[in-house]
Amino acid sequence: MKLSERLGAVEAEAAAEKPRPRPKPAAAAARHPAPAPERAERPERPERPERPERPERPERPERPAREDTAAEDGPKARATRRTNAGWEGTKKRVRDLVLADLGPKLTGAKRVGSELEKEVKAALDRALQREDVRISPAERSKFVAEVLSDILGYGPLDAPLADPTVTEIMCNAYNQIWVERRGVIEPTDLAFTDDSQYRQVIDKIVSAVGRRVDESSPMVDARLPDGSRVNAIIPPLALNGPTLTIRKFADDPYTVADLINFGSMTMDLALFLEACVRGKLNVLVSGGTGTGKTTTLNVLSSFIPERERIVTIEDAAELQLQQPHVVRLESRPANSEGRGEVRIRDLVRNALRMRPDRIVVGEVRGGEALDMLQAMNTGHAGSITTVHANTSRDALARLETMVLMAGFDLPVRAIREQIASAINVIVQLERASDGVRRVVSVEEVQGLEGDIILLQQLFRHVPRVSVDGRQVGEIEAAGLRPKFLDQLVHSGVDLPASVFHAPVRPREVRPKTRAVPSVAELIARSGGPVTGGPR
Ligand SMILES: Nc1ncnc2c1ncn2[C@@H]1O[C@H](COP(=O)(O)OP(=O)(O)OP(=O)(O)O)[C@@H](O)[C@H]1O
Ligand SMILES: [Mg+2]
């Protein structure tokens, strides 16, 4: 089905499901205060995290603080309870008992919904009896849920992982957990019990995908079972302690209609991009980190006709194509002996032998740029990829550098010729300070003139700020028709000419902000005209 048909209901949907991201009011930010002072002081971290030893039978635990505050159950009361040392201390003791009880059974097994969960619950019951934790039934179920989540899940990360409004989770320390909601980063009052629990969770995440993080390999990329992308980096590389970043995998990936609703692109721009993809132009999506490159790539790939064979190549598989004929390839880092690495570049070369109609590369970062350009120039038109760059011009410069990384001593002009004939369109993305990600420029690569690659802007974002300080700019056509329009028509793709019409708006009458002195005034201020100079 074509975009124009699919988008019929876009306007109506606009207000309902996924609200347009808005700047977060100051009051809302205040609801997420910075970590409590007692948490801000980090306890001394052990030299190296060790396996929890089987703890000695602990003293009778303190009663969780909940009992004092049972009457109130507001956010303040909950916060008090969470930070209460008795509650956390008891939890830690019980958790350590269960861990010691079950030991190796906990590693490598399925997390939830399995025999293991039953075993953990039984071990937890035993531990609770031994600990003699006196808590009310309501309190007990909460306690059990938290300990279970610590053991079977990811402890305090379970809540933001389950929260669909959270798109990114960033842990800077065991007690500093930040999340991103609607493009805006905010602190939370979540915390691991201590450094060792934090490290256990990091180890659990990376070991589930057969990797490890320790002093010999202190940074690692991994994935959660739901597909979320994880990066962990620990000392000595991370100076402030272990740092964990999770880009949540959207169960329901954004569609073109969502991006239009968010104001990330307009209907006209969407129609234009759909025509480019259907017309087999090569598209490069460019943007800084987290600007929505992968999301846009996913949306652009959704325009590829169903009958075509698509090969996707990524470092961490994030794309979610809906077409029936998709082959997904993922690169692989070297193993602990430094062997077995399969780079994006190897996969691009391999893909050429897989009879692809389209090659979609998650991001070009190195020598694969050369293979990609050659593929685009030699019968694999219609390929799409992304690059990390702040402007379209920078994207071209980066491509050039990356081609050189392939290891051939190619003259710059030859590289530029390759780029100019391979890439047709560059879509530039930006993340504004209010958290909204949007297309800020679409440029056509027109060719090479002398040594310069010619770019022509077709769409641009015109920034405007409303009286109440909101960014209300619009994406507009620049009023120019691209040179490749004929190519699109030849490939049978129809595109209304109105898409390229620049909006006509009345000339703005701007109030004078600063009076500019006239020439006569300037002369008068400087003490009159200069006389007696050379004639
Ligand atoms: N147009 C958009 N509007 C709102 N949120 C968006 C938009 N595009 C992407 N996002 C959200 O922004 C986050 C980052 O998106 P995405 O992974 O596509 O960025 P990226 O540029 O590929 O990041 P990276 O450089 O880390 O690979 C995701 O959580 C995604 O859901
Ligand atoms: Mg990405």
The side-by-side strand order for the widest beta sheet comes to: 9-8-10-11-7-12-13-14-15
The SS-based structural class is alpha/beta
Low-confidence stretches: 14-73
Strand content: 15-25%
State the major sheet. Answer: 9 strands, mixed
CATH architecture of the largest domain: 3-Layer(aba) Sandwich
Associated small molecules:
adenosine-5'-triphosphate, magnesium ion
Instruction: Tell the overall outline.
Output: globular
Q: Key terms for this structure?
A:
9-stranded mixed sheet, Beta-Lactamase, 535 residues, 6-stranded antiparallel sheet, binds magnesium ion, 33% helix, Rossmann fold, 17% strand, 3 domains, 15 strands, alpha/beta, binds adenosine-5'-triphosphate
Structure notes:
With 535 residues, this protein is α/β, with parallel strands linked by helices. The protein has three domains: 60-151, no CATH class; 154-250, Beta-Lactamase; 256-500, P-loop containing nucleotide triphosphate hydrolases (Rossmann fold, 3-Layer(aba) Sandwich). The protein contains 19 helices and 15 strands. It has helices at 3-6, 10-13, 26-30, 37-40, 75-83, 85-102, 115-131, 137-152, 158-162, 195-208, 256-262, 267-278, 293-301, 344-351, 368-377, 392-404, 412-422, 485-490, 519-525; strands at residues 166-173, 176-181, 184-187, 219-223, 229-233, 243-247, 283-287, 310-314, 326-330, 358-361, 384-388, 425-431, 437-449, 452-462, 474-477. Strands 9-8-10-11-7-12-13-14-15 form a nine-stranded mixed sheet, with helices on both faces. The protein has a six-stranded antiparallel sheet with strand order 3-2-1-6-5-4. Helix 16 crosses helix 17. The longest helix is centred in the N-terminal third of the chain and has 18 residues, at 85-102. The radius of gyration is 29 Å and the shape is globular. It starts with a helix and ends in a 10-residue tail after the last helix. The model is unreliable at 14-73 (pLDDT under 50). It binds adenosine-5'-triphosphate (ATP) and magnesium ion. Residues 293-294, 363 line the site of magnesium ion.
